[in-house]
Write a structure and sequence with these properties.
Blueprint lengths: L7 H35 L18 H30 L6 H17 L3 H19 L3 H24 L8
Helix pairs in contact: 1-2, 1-3, 1-4, 2-4, 3-4, 3-5, 4-5
Length: about 170
C-alpha cells in the first residue's frame, strides 16, 4: 500500500478492514447473547473462556441493540467506501493508507478482546467517524477522527490485556 491512499484498491482494502471489524463486533455480540442464554439455563456464571480468545460475557438487551446498530453503521460505511472508491481516488484525496489499515486492524483485535460493551461501542463509533471523514471527502476531519480512534485504542490496550477473564460490563 502506498503512503497515501489514492487508488480504488486501497480504498477497497480499507472497506474490507472495516467489514472485518464489523464481523468481529458481530461475533462478540453473539457470544455475549449466547452467554446470556447459557447463564439462564445453567443458573449461574461459568468461569471458562471460549476458544478464539477472551471470555465471552453476558450483555443487556439494550447494549446488544446499540452494538448491533453500530455494526450496521460500520457495514454501511464499508459499503459506501466500496461504492465510492473510484470517485474518492479520482478526487485526489490523500489519506495515510497504512495508518488507516493499521488502526483498523488494532480496532478489530481490541473488539475481539475487550470486555466492556461501552468500550466496544466507543471503538465502533470511532471507526464510523473515520469512515465518515473519508466518505465526506473532508480530509480536515480525518486527522481528528484518526487521532480519536488511536487514543481510544491506546487507552484500552493495557487494560484489555490485564483482565482476560472478566465479564463484559455495561
Amino acid at each position: 500500500m502506498s503512503p497515501t491512499t489514492t487508488l480504488p484498491a486501497d480504498i477497497e482494502a480499507l472497506a474490507d478492514s472495516l467489514s472485518a471489524c464489523a464481523n468481529e463486533l458481530h461475533q462478540r455480540i453473539m457470544r455475549a447473547i449466547r452467554r446470556n442464554g447459557q447463564d439462564r439455563i445453567e443458573g449461574g456464571e461459568d468461569e471458562g473462556n471460549e476458544a478464539g480468545g477472551g471470555a465471552a460475557s453476558g450483555i443487556t438487551q439494550a447494549d446488544a441493540q446499540a452494538l448491533f446498530d453500530q455494526e450496521v453503521a460500520l457495514r454501511q460505511s464499508a459499503n459506501s467506501l466500496y461504492v465510492d472508491s473510484a470517485r474518492l481516488a479520482v478526487a485526489g484525496l490523500a489519506i495515510p493508507g497504512q495508518q488507516l489499515l493499521s488502526l483498523a486492524a488494532r480496532a478489530r483485535e481490541t473488539i475481539r478482546r475487550i470486555d466492556r460493551a461501552k468500550e466496544i461501542a466507543g471503538i465502533a463509533g470511532s471507526l464510523i467517524g473515520v469512515a465518515a471523514a473519508i466518505l465526506s471527502a473532508h480530509p480536515q476531519n480525518l486527522a481528528t477522527a484518526l487521532e480519536t480512534l488511536d487514543e481510544h485504542l491506546d487507552a484500552l490496550k493495557d487494560e484489555s490485556l490485564q483482565k482476560p477473564g472478566t465479564t463484559m460490563k455495561t
